[in-house]
Amino acid sequence: MRPVDRAIAVLVAGIGAFALCFVDAARLRATAGPDEVERTRLVARLRLTDLALFTEARYTRHPSQADLHSAFQDHPLALEHFPTGSLIAPPGGLTDPSLRVGAGGKAP
Amino acid sequence: MKLWLAKQRYLIDFTLASLARRKTRNLGLLAVYTVLVFMLSSVTLYTHALRQEAARVLTASPEVIVQRMVAGRHDLIPPGYIEKVGRIRGVQKIEGRLWGYYYDAVTKANYTFMVPAENAPVAGEIVVGPALERSRGLAKNNGISFRSYSGKLHSFIVADVLPQASELISADLVLMSEASFRAFFDYPVGHYTDIALSVANPQEVRNVALKLAAALPDARPILRDEVLRTYASIYDWREGIVLALLSAAILAFGILAWEKASGLSAEEKREIGILKAIGWETGDVIKMKFWEGLLISLTAFLAGFVAAYVHVFHFAAALFEPVLKGWAVLYPRFQLTPHIDGLQVATLFFFTVVPYAAAVLVPIWKAAITDPDSVMRS
Amino acid sequence: MIEVTGIRKAFNQGRDNEYWALDGIDLHIEAKKVTALRGPSGSGKTTLLTIVGCLARPTEGRVHLLGEDISGLPERFLTEIRRKRFGFIFQQFNLIKGLTALDNIILPAYPTGRPRHELLARAEELLAGLKLGHRRDAKVEWLSGGEQQRVAICRALINDPEVVIADEPTANLDTHLAGEFMGILENLADQDRTILLTSHDPLVVESSVVHRVVDMRDGKLIVHG
Lengths: 108, 378, 225
What we know:
The complex is a heterotrimer of chains A (108), B (378) and C (225). With 108 residues, chain A is an all-alpha fold. Chain A has 4 helices and no strands. At the A-B interface, α1, α2 and α3 of A face α1, α2, β1, β3 and β4 of B.
């Protein structure tokens, strides 16, 4: 077998696997439908607002509900305790007043 | 066309043979390259799927949440407050929400205690999230006691466990009746944590929020759009930190690739001279090198991407978990639904394949246009 | 066959170390004859070889191949001429390490895109002709000097060139191997190829295989009385 044929075989296999990823993704999406419906129903029933990704502090457990100063709740100069704090940005409404409704926001 | 193809096959033959000569080095490079693509693809696949998940699931969250702010801090909703909100037009339903945090010294984890608006458990019973079921070894009909902040011990029966499929949103939840909640936290009667509003007309949501802010200056309305935006930006940032960590790796690889690709060794230069002397055109030499760059980078891209796909969607991004879970004791176990953004994949492809192919070509161009008579003068 | 007129070749032109390797060469190389360039090192014979073989361009002067002026042709055409009409045997052999003897031999034919089985058959035929058939799959760096040269000769012949150019072909060979090379040279001459070589080895230039010896010194031809 010539090297070029071997290389083409490897690439074809790679492209096949690449395409298979998308097929597999479609399959998983199709089977995940009921679970997603269940999650959505639970969010609606419990009036949930956040994902339970980080439970270590209230501003990481409920980032969208955190008040303006919750990152400094112990002291304005307190150092960040949790590495998550470096992973998440403050909600848009906290840093950009134009995105916030209420404080100086304009009616549409 | 047939001739062109035959010619390209010969060029690929040659480039593979010369790669095989420095097998360890080139395989090492391919491995590092693949790992890099794997990391980058894992991050993009993971964050995109998570963002999609948040965007889909949280569309069912309340249109507006109203908090009361006191001295810049979230405070309880006093009695009578809900009635004031009720007079705003466009609001279809108003409910006081009752929820709070509880630190469990046994597992050193934080739970979210919550009173469901519908189908609340009866007093003395609780429904727990799947992570709690794991960390405390709870099952249906088990009993459990929590020591409240006032020091009293409260015992509950686990009436049910929330389904595992919902773990991403419900991992740390403890659902209980309003009476149990108020008793446990000594929560004053008539007070609520915040208010959930449902607004029938989506066009009205902003107006309702504005009217609310005007009528109740101490209220902070949080729109569902803001919630969704929060999650869209969170993953941008998380992507940012992982990318920041990766940038060192990318830089190192850049140096490696540049050294490998651009630092033509004296031997390679000599070979190019030989090839030109025996009748290869400059274009042939460049095409030969182009194939080298393309083969290496394409192989690395395909292998890295496929590995990343399997990692994220079949192994739940296990390698990233230590980074992503932060200090949380309770970390949800969830299998993301694969949503792949074609544009993102294309971007990834462009930024991983093209630079390498280019880095290979640049020096070859210079070497290939030199006169072939150098081979006679050695 | 090949006619060069008024050839001058400068290296490092316009700089302090400017150096004229060839200084006015007029030479006619006859078709189907063996021509040897003789001269001490630095006399410019190799430089003349590169110009005749279209590997380099003269600074001044003209090169005619079969009556056609090729000195002004673009690089692409020179490459094509080199590939189709010339076969080169370099002093250092210049084989590509890591490739087998067969793969080295068919390299000059890659740009032609000819079918691989055809090329391999031809290469094996050439190797067998030089009694090297048993080494076809050996990597060239494992071959002895004499074997390497024979692979280089096969490579020079893969595109069936009219002109074979050899630079100091016996410089890296012992007397026995040099003798064998002269035998191969005789065969090539019998195949009606035009051969141009440089050498200062008496074994070569005094051989009966060589039809004409041209002496060179300091970039000029020495005209014999």
